[in-house]
């Protein structure tokens, strides 16, 4: 009789624990769905990462996926400033896709401070008073940001500003352009670098910061 | 008797310290990527330290990221090519 009560109490405890676990799992899945969508990743991928914890080694996989998510390139960072005409400036701008295929423009940012690019002994300050700047290895026009290094093209890349965001577009210089270590090709068009830490033009690494 | 109690207290303290160390080490595995995610979203990376709160810490972190506007902007899933 006493044992029966014990078993019933234990089952009740496990039932309660399971209920809490289920609620926590659903809540976590929902929140990860939203977080993934904010990063531009399909929401189901975030929820699936949490649901993997139901499997035997799922917690380890979820942890690995968290690290991957933190350091991967987010689709949000891929430039899609369809609403910002400045981002489409320049001869290398890609033609607009068919109507209906355009993603909605990213949200404009309220933070309107300027930016600095620092590295190799130079500090380049700029803001969104101009729609476009040119990163170049030699002095040029008023929109030129000069990085005096032989590996930097003349011009090398274009910096675009719109709605408090900045974009970077490679102009095909042999030295190459890199965003947080990933190669940016002219075919990629402009990419949003508002949230990145470093860019590299030729052999020169430049740290991006707000002023 | 006092010796036994002393041993029990010592063992308890050791167990507590072990649990604390394991908790901090596991939290670190979550704090590092969360710090990066917070910074990319435009928040202070210090918010990732909520992972140090036992049990509900990860939920606090997820709730902040899921239900607040990201200062660095938010993306949306890209529509399928047509």
Notable traits:
heterodimer, A: 211 residues, alpha+beta, Tumour Suppressor Smad4, 2 domains, 6-stranded antiparallel beta sheet, 5-stranded mixed beta sheet, 3 helices, 11 strands, B: 82 residues, mainly alpha, 0% strand, rod-shaped
Structural write-up:
The complex is a heterodimer of chains A (about 210) and B (about 80). Chain A is built from three helices and eleven strands, in the order H-H-H-E-E-E-E-E-E-E-E-E-E-E. Chain A is elongated. The longest helix of chain A is centred in the N-terminal third of the chain and has 37 residues, at about 1-40. Chain A has helices at about 1-40, 45-50, 60-70; strands at about 115-120, 120-125, 130-135, 145, 155-160, 165-170, 175-180, 180-185, 190, 200, 205-210. In chain A, a hairpin with a 2-residue loop joins strand 1 (about 115-120) and strand 2. In chain A, the strands form two sheets. Chain A has a six-stranded antiparallel β-sheet, with no helix packed on it. Helices cover about 30% and strands about 25% of the residues of chain A. With about 210 residues, chain A is α+β, with helices and mostly antiparallel strands. In chain A, helix 1 packs antiparallel against helix 2. Chain A has two domains: about 1-70, no CATH class; about 105-210, Tumour Suppressor Smad4. Chain B has about 80 residues and is mostly helical. Chain B has a domain at about 25-70. Helix content of chain B is about 60%, strand content about 0%. Chain B has helices at about 1-40, 55-65.
